[in-house]
Every structure is written in C-alpha cells, then in structure tokens.
UniProtKB/TrEMBL annotation:
It comes from Rufibacter hautae. Keywords: DNA-binding, Phosphoprotein, Transcription, Transcription regulation, Two-component regulatory system. Residues 135-229 bind DNA. Residues 135-229 form the OmpR/PhoB-type domain. The modification 4-aspartylphosphate is found at D57. This is Phosphate regulon transcriptional regulatory protein PhoB. GO terms for molecular function: phosphorelay response regulator activity; transcription cis-regulatory region binding. The keyword Transcription applies.
Amino acid sequence: MQTPAKYKILVVDDDPDIVELLQYNLEKEGYEVAHAQNGQVALDVAKKFLPDIILLDVMMPVMDGITACRQLREKPKFKDTHILFLTARSEEFSEVAAFDAGADDFIVKPIKPRALISRLAAYKRRDTGQDSEQTQVIEIGGLRIDRTSFIVHKGEQKITLPKKEFELLSFLATTPNKVFSRDELLNNVWGSDVFVIARTVDVHIRKVREKIGEDQIKTIKGVGYKFNTD
C-alpha cells in the first residue's frame, strides 16, 4: 500500500532560531518541512518542494516577503497555495500591501506554536476534505459557491478567488442579509489569534466585488457588510 503524501510546509525566515522552532514543532506534528532564509531562495525551494503552505516572513534581506508572495502568485502552480505571513506588530503598515500581493493570513510574532499548529491544522482539514459537516455548495443571489473546489460560478462564468476572499464571501453568503461588523468578520474569517487590522476586511471586500460584481455585498455605512438578496 502506498504511504499517503505528507502535508508540506515551507518556512521562510532569516532568523535561524525561528526556523528551528517552527521546523521542530511542525515535524513533531507529522508535516514535511523545508526552509529558506529569504524570498529569493524561497522561490527556488518552492519550485522543487511544492509546499501546501508557505510561512513567509515580511522583512528579509535580498528579497522581502511581499515581493516573494507577489512573484509566487504569478506562477499558476502556486495560485492556490496557502501563504501565511509571519509579522511583528510594528510591521502593521505593510499588511494591506501583503494582502494585495496575495497573502491568505497573518500570524503575529512572537509565534505561539500551539496556536500556529491549530491554524495550520484547519487549513489541512479543509484541503483534505475533513470539514464535511459544513454545507459544501451554497446557491444564492445568482452565485453557486462550491466549498469543496473553492470555485464560484456566476451563470456560465467560473470565478476563482484566493482563499481568504473565498472564505469571506462564503461566510457572508451562509447568513444572507445579516449585517456583520468588521470585527465580527475578522474574528470569524481570520480568527482571534491572528493580528489583522479592520481595513483588511475593506481590501478583501473590494477585491471580491471586482470579481463577482457590486450587487451581492452591500455596505451598511458605519456598521459593516452583508450579503444582499433584496
């Protein structure tokens, strides 16, 4: 019998202590781990290693994380790879730029291994189809949102969204016409253990609207957003 392939994680950080900490904890959980010390090396390693998740530091020599993320997203083979940024709170200024480059998530340093393992396990469960208790297909407002393939169909058009944009749309569509504040969306889509700013929601809403149209997600001024079926 063939042994199932291990879930692969690429750790990219110029701090060897952080790399060692992450590699130890991830391998203990059964993940296959590779590492790189900057964004340029990460591009080369990723081509050969083909990770399921990339943990990417923001500030690094030679090539920073944002540039590396943008270049990875330009390659079709990494379009659906989860890219999670490792960031210090002092780097909050770069968060919107990172999401624009294609980031899925942010994890704040100093890293808490147990919280990180929990978050990575959620990505793995979703990728391996272990979250079967959730409704897998949502049909609403002229959209067909397929949670198994992460594809949105609008009529005959097939729309592929990055992971966090898809999760945001899916969350809003699950409870149509209910208004969610930015904080509620951050907690439910990004999680309470990930440090992101409220503007992150606005950036993702804008990008979702650009792809599915302006009508589905309505802004309630001073309150938040809702999936509109009116």
